[in-house]
Design brief:
The protein is an alpha/beta fold. Helices cover about 40% and strands about 5% of the residues. The chain has 49 helices and 19 strands. The strands form 5 sheets. An 8-stranded mixed beta sheet has the order 13-14-15-12-16-17-18-19. Strands 10-9-8-7-11 form a 5-stranded antiparallel beta sheet. Strand 9 and strand 10 form a beta hairpin. Helix 20 crosses helix 21, helix 28 runs parallel beside helix 32 and helix 32 runs parallel beside helix 34.
C-alpha cells in the first residue's frame, strides 16, 4: 500500500540526539560525567516537590543556553546502566514534569524557555527518552523490573500529553510517533533467547548497548504489550487530530512486519481491528446490527472526534499493517529481518536466522492472527456477542455462531438470530478476507498431487503455480511462500520441533471455519462468484483429507490400546476436518452450486467420527459437539442419493477422471447412520439420528412405491400427485424421479399405495405377513439381509436397532425414549411390500417388555417423566396393533398384549411366570403405577376390543362413534309422529336414560324403528361411554334369527281334528295324611294344644266369632256349588260345533328397557344400592326432563374420543412481514410455489366442514353435520385459501388422533348486518372479535363459542370429584383429583404453525404473534391471550435442487425435539407432507405429556358422564325405581 513511499524510520544509532550526547560524553571522563549528571538531575528533581513535602519551587532556568547545557546531560543520564537507577529516576522525573508545558495547566517548575516554546523542547525530550527504552543487555529480572517502572511512567506521560494537549504541532506529533516506532523497534525487533542470568551490576555505558538480543528476561517481552498499546492508541489519536503522512504509515507497516515474531503484536493488532471494526459497522449497518462487545478499557480506544471517512481509512490501513497474516506460518519469511540476521552473525552457534528458537511460537501466533481475522468475519456476518475476550477463550476453530447453533440448548434460542439480516454479501466479505483465508486454508497442501484416495496423506508440497489475481487465494506469491515453508529433508535439531506443518493446523482450521461460515451465510437467491466456489471446494477437499500427523499419532495410540477397548476401532478427526464439520453444518442445506461434489470427501470424514464409540478429536472441541455437527451434515446428505439417483460426481481434485454415482453411496450412508445410532450416547445427537433413520425408511419405501407405479404405467402424468386427499402415510408426492434400485427389489401392488387413509394396515400384505408370523419362530438375533438397501431391509433393521437400544440404554432418558417410540409409531404406519410379520411381532413384544420394565422400576425412580414414557409406549403399541391387526391372531402376541394391559390397569400381573398359578382379579390389590398409566392401558384395551381390525368403521375414518343420535332415531321411529321441527330437548323425552357403572350412559328407545316390522320386543340403545357413542337395536327372540324367519302362527289355524279317545276320568279325593294316622295314640304333646270346643266353651267372644265364620263359610260353599252346577249345565260333550279354537292376541307391551336391564343383571338389589367402593350404584336413572340435560348431552357428544389437534399453514413470499400480505398469498394458485398445493395434499384430505362429523379446526363447525350454506362456489384455482375452514379444511385421522390443517386467508367481504360465522351453541367461553379479520377457522365472530375442553367451574362436580373413580388402598389413588388442575398453560393454548418460505431468512422475521388472531380454534382457555403464546413453528424452504430445508422453532420445553423432523434437516419431496404431519402430531403429543392439566379423551368423557349423574340423577328407593321401569316415557 505504501511501498512507493520512503520510510521515515531511520537507523537506531541516528535517533535520540546522538551527536549532542556523544559530544558531552567525550568531553569528560565517565566518573566526572556521572557525578555531573547525578548532581544536576538530583538538584532539578528536588525542586519538583516530588521527594520533599511542599509546593514545587519555581524554576530558575530562564535562558535557552542554560537548557542547551542541561538537556544533553539529562539525555546522557537516561543512557546510564540500570545499576544507576536513582540517576535514571531523577532524569525521568525532570523530563516528565517539563513535558507538562504541553498541557493546559503546566507545572510551576517548568522553565520559562520551555513554556515559551513547548513543542520544540518537547521534541528534544521525546528524543532523549529513547535511551531509557534501549535494552541494556543480559540483565536479571529485578533490574528489568526497575527499567519497566520508569518506562511505564514515561509512556503514561506521553499518552496523557497526546490525549489532553491542546497545542501539539504537526512536527511534535510526527516526533512522538517516530519515537514510539523506534522504541518498539529497539525492544521488539531482536529475537528473544532464554539464557542463564548474568550479573545485573555490569557497568556499561549507553553507547556500548547490546543490540544482539542475547538477553535473559528480555525487556521487550515485559514491555511488549504496553509499548504496542501506547503506539496504536497514540496512532489512532494522531489520525483523529493530525493524520500521519504516508511515509509514517510505511514506517509503521515495515516495523510491524519486523515484529511479527512477537505474540503481543498480533494481540494488539486484533484489539485495534476489533475496535475499528465496531465503529465501522455501527455507521455502515446502523444501530440494529449486532455490536461487538468491548471491555471497559477498550470502550474509548477510538477517539470520538474521528470522522467516518477517517475510521474507514484507518481500519483498512491497520488491517493490512502486518502484511499477509499467512506469512506467520512461514518461518523463513518472518526471520528475514536485520535483527535476526545480526543474531545469526553474532551468535556463537552459526545457524540460519530461520532456525532461531523464538520462531517456535509462530504456530500460536499464526493461530491468534487467524482467530482475529475469523472474528472480523463474524463481525461482518452479524454474529451476536462477538468480543475479543470470547475470541481468546473459545476453541481454536469453534466460532460463537457455530457453537450456538450446535449447542444442545440451541433449540431454545429460536428467537435469537444467529446472523444479522442486513449483513454483507458473501462476495464482499471474500473480497476483503478471501485471499488470506484461502491461502491459509491451503498452506502445506500439494495441489498437484493425485488425490485418488480420500485418506491419502500428503504432509508437504507446493501450491499450484499461476499468476496471482487481486482476489486470488492461492497461486503466484502463495506458491512461492508455500515452498518456503516446506519442511527440510535433512534432520534438524529441536529448534524446529514446533515448526512442522501439523503445528499450523490450528490456524488453518480457523481459516477453514471462517470460510465455511462465510459461505453458509449465503442468503436465498444470493449469487457467489464461481471462482470463489471453486477455491472454496478445493480448500474444503484438502481440509477434509486426514493429513495431520496428529491423526497418525492417534491411530498409533489406538493400535496400542486395542486390547483395552476389546478390539474396537477408535475414530479420528483432524483439526481442519473438525472445523469444517462444526462451522459448515449448513453447506448442504443451501443452494450452493456444485456442492454435491464434496459428498465423497465429507462422507470419508463422517466415517471417522460417527460410527466409533471413541473419537480422538481436537482437545478444545467437545466430542459430543463434534458428533452433533457430523450428524447435522449427515442428515443434510441423506436425501441426495435417491434424489440425484443418476448423477455422477467427480471428486474435487481427482485427476484420474473417475466419477462416483451418488446412488451407490446410499448403502454407505445407511450403514453410517445405523452404526452411529448404536454407539451414540448424547441424547440430542441420538434424537437427531432417529429422525434421520425414519426419513431413510420412509423415503426408500415411497421411492419403491413410485418405482412400482412407474414400471406398471399406472400413471400417465409424471407430475401427478399420488398423495391426494385420500392417501395415507404410504405415499407423499410424486415427481420426476427415476428409480435406480436393483431389479430384485420387491414392489408394491397398486392397492397398497393408493388405498384410503386408515386402511394401510389392511393391505394385501396382511395375509402374507400373518402366514409368516404363524410359521416363524421368535428369535432375538440380529436379522440378515440380501439387499440391505431395500425399504424392507431398512424397516427390519430399524425395528431391531431401535427396540434393542430402547430397552438396553435409552430407557432412562425420557426425550430419547419418546423419540424412539415416535420412530416406531412412524414405522408401524408404513406399508412395505412383504412385511415381515415376525419382526412386527417382535416390535410389539419389545414394546410390552419396555412397559413392563419401566413399571417394575423401584418406587424412588418413578417420576412424571418415567410415566410419560410408559404412556407413549402404550400409544405406540396401539398404533402397531391398528396398523397390523393380524398380530392379534397370534395367541402368544395376544397374551403378551393382555398381560401388559393388566399390568397397566392393576399394577401387577396375574401370572408373573408361566409356572405360577394365576391370581384372580378379586385377589389382587388395584394399585397401578399412576393414573396416567392406568388410563393409557384402558385406552389400549379399548383399541384392541373395538378398533383393531375394524378401523376405519362404516362411518369412515372421520368418526369412531356412530353418527346416529336421538333426533335421527326418532325420525325413523314408526310409532312416534315426529315433526321436522323436533328439537333435542323434545327428543330426549322419548328416551329412558340410565348410567351403568358410573361410566356408561344408556339412552333406551322402546319404540321399534320403521325398518323392523317383526313384532318382537325391541329396544334401540344409544350407548355413550368413555370411548365413543354406538347405536344398537336389540330384540328379544326365543329362537335364532335364521330359525325364526318362518312364522309359527297363522291368522286362522282352522278347526282341530276331534279325538274320540279321550280316556277315562277318575275322581280321586286327595288325602293329606295316611290312613294309619288315626290309629296312632295321642301323647301329652298332642294334647298340649287345646281343642276348639274347649276354647269356645271358656271364651264367649271366641264362640261368637266362630259362629260368624261358620256362616260365611257355609255361604261361600253354597255359592261355589251353585256356580259349579251352572257351568256343568252349559258344557256339553266335546266336540261342540259352535265353539272354535282362537289364538290368543299378541302382547305388545313388554317394557323392553326393563327386560334389557334385567337380562344384563342391572336390576338386582345389589346393583341399585350404594357400595363401600362407590357412592354411586351400578345403575342410576337420569331425569331427562330437567333443564340443561339436552345441552349437557350435546356437550358430551362433542367431547371427542380421540385427541384433536390443529395445524395452521401459512405461505410467506420473500421479504413479507405484514400479516395481511401473508394471508393474501394463498388466494390464487399463481402466487404460490408449484409444489405448495402438492404439499397440502400430503398433509391430509379435503373435507367439507358442514358435512364433516370430525374435527374441523374450530368448535363452531366440529362434530356436527349441518345443512350447506348458500355460499359462492368453491374456487378450484385457489392457492390454499380453499382450506381456510369456511367451507373446507385438510383433515387426517387414525384410530387414536385427529388433526385438521387450516390455511388462513383474508375474510371475504360480508354484507352489512350479516354475521361472519354461523350460529353456534353458547357453551361458556367468549372468543373476542379480531379486528380486521373475517370468518373461517381463524376469525369466527361468534359472540359465544365454547371451548372443546371447557374449563369446569370451581363448584363443578368434576373438580370436586375424588371418590367415584378412586379405588385400591394406595394414597395416590385415593387422593387423586380428576378435575382440571391449575397449570401454567392449557393444552389447547399451544399453536402449531407450518410456514412455507420462499426466502429462508424470513424465518427470523415471521410475525407469529401477529397471526394468533387467525388461529383461534375455540379450545383456548379464557386467559390464553394474557399469557405468553406457546407457538411451535415448522418452517419449510424449497431449495432450487428440489429438496426442502426444515427449520423448527419454539421447542424449548422440557420434552423438546419432537420428531421425526430435525431442525436443519433436508428432506425430499416424496416424504415432506408425511413427515411434517407426523412432526406436528408429535409436537402436540409431547405438549400433552408435559402438561399437568391434560386428561386423555376417554377420561374427559367419563368425567362428563359422572357430572351428569350428579346433576340429573333420580333420587329413588328400590321400589320406586322398579315402579319407574313400568311407566312409559312421553310418546
Amino acid at each position: 500500500m505504501f511501498s512507493d513511499w520512503p520510510s521515515e524510520l531511520v537507523p537506531q544509532q541516528g535517533w535520540g540526539d546522538e551527536a549532542a550526547i556523544s559530544a558531552f560524553k567525550d568531553a569528560v571522563p565517565w566518573s566526572v560525567g556521572r557525578d555531573f549528571v547525578a548532581g544536576t538531575a538530583k538538584h532539578l528533581a528536588s525542586s519538583l516537590g516530588l521527594t520533599k513535602p511542599g509546593p514545587p519551587i519555581r524554576s530558575k532556568i530562564i535562558h535557552d543556553k542554560q537548557l542547551q547545557v542541561l538537556m544533553p546531560a539529562l539525555g546522557y543520564g537516561l543512557s546510564f546502566p540500570l545499576s544507576e537507577i536513582d540517576i535514571l529516576r531523577d532524569c525521568v522525573s525532570v523530563y516528565c514534569e517539563w513535558l507538562s508545558a504541553l498541557l493546559p495547566n503546566p507545572k510551576s517548575s517548568v522553565p520559562a524557555p520551555i513554556l515559551s516554546d513547548p513543542n520544540h523542547y518537547a521534541r528534544i525530550v521525546i528524543n532523549h527518552f529513547y535511551y531509557l527504552f534501549v535494552p541494556r543487555g543480559a540483565q536479571g529480572p529485578d533490574v528489568i523490573n526497575r527499567q519497566a517502572v520508569l518506562c511505564h511512567r514515561v509512556l503514561r506521560t506521553l499518552q496523557n500529553i497526546a490525549q489532553n494537549s491542546p497545542c501539539l504541532s504537526e512536527d511534535t506529533w510526527q516526533t512522538l510517533l517516530l519515537f514510539l516506532l523506534h522504541i518498539n523497534s529497539a525492544l521488539l525487533s531482536p529475537p528473544t533467547v532464554k539464557v542463564s542470568d548474568e550479573s545485573e551490576g555490569a557497568s556499561t555505558s549507553s553507547l556500548s548497548l547490546n543490540l544482539t538480543g542475547d538477553v535473559a528476561e528480555d525487556a521487550g517481552e515485559q514491555l511488549c504489550e504496553r509499548v504496542l498499546s501506547v503506539l496504536f492508541e497514540t496512532w489512532l489519536l494522531a489520525c483523529a487530530r493530525c493524520f500521519p503522512p504516508p511515509p509514517l504509515w510505511n514506517a509503521l507497516r515495515e516495523s510491524c512486519q519486523r515484529w511479527r515474531h512477537r505474540a503481543g503484536l498480533i494481540d494488539q493488532w486484533n484489539r485495534i481491528n476489533f475496535a475499528l471494526t465496531g465503529k465501522l459497522i455501527s455507521f455502515m449497518y446502523g444501530p440494529s446490527f449486532p455490536e461487538i462487545k468491548f471491555s471497559e478499557d477498550d470502550l474509548n480506544i477510538i477517539p470520538s472526534t474521528m470522522s467516518r471517512d477517517c475510521i474507514a481509512q484507518v481500519w483498512y490501513r491497520i488491517l493490512h499493517i502486518i502484511g499477509n497474516p499467512v506469512d506467520l506460518s512461514r518461518h523463513t519469511v518472518i526471520s528475514k529481518t536485520p535483527a535476526f540476521l545480526k543474531y545469526a552473525i553474532s551468535s556463537e552457534l552459526v545457524i540460519e536466522p530461520s532456525q532461531h528458537p523464538c520462531l517456535q511460537m509462530l504456530p500460536s501466533i499464526f493461530l491468534s492472527a487467524m482467530k482475529g481475522v475469523s472474528g472480523l468475519v463474524d463481525a461482518f456476518l452479524g454474529v451476536p456477542n462477538i468480543s475479543l475476550e470470547n475470541l481468546n477463550q473459545k476453541g481454536h476453530h469453534l466460532s460463537s455462531s457455530s457453537s450456538l447453533s450446535l449447542s444442545s440448548e440451541g433449540r431454545g434460542e429460536d428467537s435469537t438470530r444467529l446472523l444479522a439480516s442486513g449483513r454483507a454479501k458473501c462476495n464482499s466479505i471474500l473480497h476483503l478476507f478471501g485471499p488470506w483465508l484461502f491461502e491459509a486454508a491451503l498452506i502445506n497442501c500439494n495441489m498437484q498431487a493425485s488425490v485418488g484416495s480420500q485418506h491419502k496423506t500428503d504432509a508437504s508440497g507446493t501450491a499450484g503455480s499461476g499468476s496471482r489475481r487481486p482476489v486470488s487465494g492461492f497461486g503466484g506469491e502463495s506458491s512461492r511462500k508455500s515452498s518456503d515453508s516446506s519442511v527440510p529433508s535433512e534432520p534438524q535439531n529441536d529448534r524446529l520441533a514446533n515448526l512442522s506443518p501439523q503445528h499450523f493446523q490450528g490456524g488453518r482450521a480457523e481459516a477453514l471455519g471462517a470460510l465455511c461460515r462465510i459461505f453458509c451465510s449465503k442468503k436465498t437467491g444470493e449469487e457467489i462468484l464461481p471462482v470463489y466456489l471453486a477455491r472454496f471446494y478445493l480448500a474444503l477437499h484438502q481440509g477434509l483429507r486426514q493429513t495431520d500427523a496428529i491423526v497418525t499419532a492417534h491411530q498409533e495410540q489406538a493400535s496400542f490400546t486395542s486390547n483395552k477397548y476389546q478390539g474396537s476401532k477408535i475414530g479420528t478427526c483432524s483439526e481442519t476436518a473438525a472445523s469444517i464439520l462444526v462451522n459448515g453444518v449448513d453447506l448442504f442445506r443451501l443452494d450452493l452450486q456444485g456442492v454435491v461434489s464434496l459428498v465423497p470427501s465429507v462422507l470419508g470424514v463422517l466415517e471417522g467420527v460417527l460410527p466409533e464409540a471413541e473419537v480422538h478429536a481436537p482437545p478444545h472441541l467437545p466430542v459430543p459437539l463434534l458428533r452433533r455437527a457430523a450428524t447435522h451434515v449427515l442428515l443434510s446428505i441423506l436425501p441426495l442419493p435417491l434424489h440425484f439417483q443418476g448423477l455422477q460426481v467427480k471428486e474435487v481434485g481427482c485427476s484420474s477422471g473417475e466419477r462416483v454415482v451418488l446412488s451407490h453411496l446410499r448403502p454407505q450412508l445407511v450403514n453410517l447412520l445405523s452404526n452411529a445410532l448404536q454407539v451414540e450416547t448424547d441424547p440430542a445427537n441420538t434424537q437427531m439420528l432417529l429422525g434421520g433413520l425414519l426419513f431413510c425408511v420412509q423415503d426408500a419405501a415411497l421411492c419403491e412405491v413410485m418405482d412400482s407405479i412407474s414400471q406398471h404405467n399406472f400413471s400417465a402424468d409424471r407430475d401427478h400427485n399420488i398423495m391426494s386427499s385420500g392417501a395415507s402415510d404410504t405415499v407423499s408426492s410424486h415427481g420426476d424421479y427415476n428409480s435406480l434400485l436393483d431389479d430384485s427389489c420387491e414392489t408394491l401392488p397398486v392397492g397398497d399405495s393408493l388405498g384410503p387413509v386408515g386402511s394401510s394396515g389392511l393391505s394385501s400384505t396382511t395375509s402374507a405377513s400373518h402366514a409368516t408370523l404363524l410359521s416363524a419362530t421368535d428369535t432375538d438375533g440380529p436379522p440378515s439381509f440380501e439387499d440391505p438397501d431395500s425399504a424392507h431391509a431398512l424397516f427390519v433393521r430399524a425395528i431391531y436397532l431401535v427396540c434393542h437400544r430402547l430397552i438396553s440404554s435409552w430407557k432412562s432418558d425420557v426425550n430419547v425414549s419418546l423419540a424412539g417410540l415416535e420412530l416406531l409409531s412412524g414405522l408401524a404406519r408404513l406399508s412395505i411390500a412383504e412385511q415381515d410379520g415376525l419382526e412386527c411381532k417382535r416390535a410389539v413384544k419389545w414394546l410390552c417388555d419396555y412397559i413392563a420394565y419401566q413399571c417394575s422400576r423401584p418406587a424412588r425412580l418413578h417420576s412424571k417423566d418415567l410415566h410419560s414414557t410408559i404412556v407413549a409406549a402404550f400409544h405406540c403399541a396401539s398404533v402397531w396393533l391398528v396398523a397390523h391387526p393380524y398380530l392379534l391372531h397370534d395367541k402368544e402376541c395376544l397374551g403378551t398384549i393382555l398381560e401388559v394391559i393388566e399390568l397397566g390397569i392393576s399394577g401387577s400381573k396375574s401370572q408373573v411366570k408361566s409356572s405360577d398359578a394365576p391370581r384372580l382379579k378379586h385377589e389382587k390389590e388395584l394399585k397401578p403405577a399412576s393414573m396416567r398409566v392406568r388410563d393409557s392401558a384402558e385406552a389400549l384395551l379399548s383399541c384392541v376390543l373395538s378398533q383393531v381390525g375394524t378401523f376405519p368403521s362404516v362411518c369412515g375414518a372421520e368418526s369412531l362413534s356412530s353418527l346416529l343420535d336421538e333426533l335421527t332415531l326418532l325420525r325413523h321411529c314408526n310409532t312416534c309422529d315426529v315433526s321436522d321441527q323436533l328439537t333435542r330437548d323434545a327428543a330426549v323425552q322419548h328416551f329412558r336414560y340410565f348410567v351403568a357403572q358410573n361410566s356408561i350412559m344408556l339412552a333406551l328407545l322402546e319404540q321399534p324403528l320403521g325398518n323392523h316390522q317383526d313384532p318382537q320386543p325391541t329396544v334401540t340403545a344409544l350407548i355413550r361411554g368413555p370411548f365413543g357413542r354406538v347405536a344398537w337395536t336389540l330384540q328379544l327372540r326365543h329362537l335364532a334369527r335364521h330359525k325364526s324367519s318362518a312364522k309359527l302362527y297363522t291368522v286362522n289355524p282352522g278347526r282341530p281334528l276331534p279325538m274320540n279317545d279321550v280316556g277315562i276320568k277318575h275322581n280321586v279325593n286327595p288325602k293329606y295324611f295316611p290312613d294309619s294316622v288315626e290309629r296312632i295314640p295321642l301323647c301329652k304333646a298332642d294334647k298340649s294344644i287345646p281343642s276348639l270346643e274347649s276354647v269356645m266353651m271358656v271364651d264367649e267372644k271366641s264362640a261368637t266369632e266362630h259362629d260368624k265364620l261358620l256362616q260365611i263359610l257355609d255361604h261361600q260353599i253354597a255359592f261355589e256349588d251353585n256356580i259349579r252346577r251352572q257351568v256343568e249345565r252349559e258344557i256339553t260333550d266335546y266336540p261342540d260345533v259352535e265353539t272354535e279354537c282362537v289364538a290368543l292376541p299378541l302382547c305388545h307391551e313388554f317394557q323392553t328397557a326393563r327386560l334389557l336391564l334385567s337380562h344384563f343383571g342391572f336390576l338386582s338389589l345389589d346393583s341399585l344400592q350404594e357400595s363401600v367402593e362407590s357412592a354411586v350404584p351400578s345403575l342410576v336413572a337420569l331425569d331427562c326432563s330437567m333443564a340443561g340435560f339436552a345441552k349437557d348431552l350435546e356437550l358430551l357428544d362433542t367431547t371427542n374420543n380421540r385427541t384433536i389437534d390443529t395445524g395452521h399453514v401459512f405461505y410467506v413470499r420473500a421479504g413479507q412481514t405484514n400479516p395481511h400480505e401473508i394471508l393474501s398469498n394463498v388466494v390464487s394458485s399463481s402466487s404460490v410455489h408449484p409444489h405448495f398445493l402438492e404439499f397440502l395434499g400430503g398433509l391430509g384430505w379435503s373435507v367439507n366442514v358442514h358435512q364433516h362429523p370430525g374435527w374441523t379446526g374450530h368448535v363452531s363447525t366440529a362434530f356436527t353435520v349441518t345443512t350447506l350454506p348458500q355460499d359462492a362456489p368453491f374456487d378450484v384455482n385457489h392457492g390454499g385459501s380453499g382450506f381456510s375452514g369456511r367451507t373446507h379444511v385438510l383433515y387426517w385421522s387414525d384410530a387414536l388422533s385427529e388433526m385438521a390443517f387450516v390455511v388462513p386467508s383474508p375474510a371475504p367481504a360480508q354484507p352489512n348486518n350479516q354475521p361472519a360465522a354461523a350460529n353456534s351453541v353458547n357453551m361458556g367461553i367468549i372468543i373476542e372479535r379480531s379486528d380486521g379479520s373475517g370468518g373461517g377457522s381463524g376469525s369466527e365472530k361468534s359472540d359465544s363459542l365454547h371451548s372443546y375442553e371447557v374449563e369446569v367451574d370451581q363448584g363443578s362436580s368434576i373438580s370436586s370429584h375424588t371418590s367415584q373413580m378412586s379405588f385400591g388402598h394406595g394414597n395416590e389413588n385415593r387422593n387423586r383429583k380428576f378435575g382440571r388442575q391449575t397449570s401454567a398453560l392449557s393444552c389447547g393454548d399451544h399453536k402449531v404453525y407450518i410456514v412455507w418460505l420462499e426466502s429462508f431468512e424470513d424465518s427470523y422475521t415471521f410475525p407469529a404473534n401477529d397471526l394468533l388472531s387467525e388461529t383461534i380454534t375455540g379450545r383456548e382457555s379464557t386467559s390464553w391471550k394474557d399469557k405468553e403464546a406457546c407457538i411451535y413453528i415448522i418452517f419449510i424452504h424449497a431449495l432450487t435442487n428440489g429438496l426442502f430445508r426444515i427449520k423448527l422453532q419454539g421447542q424449548n420445553a422440557k420434552l423438546s425435539m419432537a420428531g421425526p423432523l430435525i431442525d436443519g434437516q433436508v428432506v425430499s419431496r416424496r416424504v415432506l407432507g408425511t413427515l411434517v404431519r407426523q412432526t406436528a402430531l408429535n409436537m402436540c403429543r409431547r405438549k400433552r405429556l408435559e402438561s399437568d392439566s391434560y386428561q386423555p379423551p376417554h377420561v374427559r368423557r367419563k368425567l362428563r358422564i359422572q357430572e351428569m349423574v350428579q346433576k340429573y340423577r333420580y333420587e329413588m328407593t328400590e321400589p320406586e325405581f322398579y315402579s319407574h321401569l313400568f311407566t312409559s316415557p312421553l310418546c
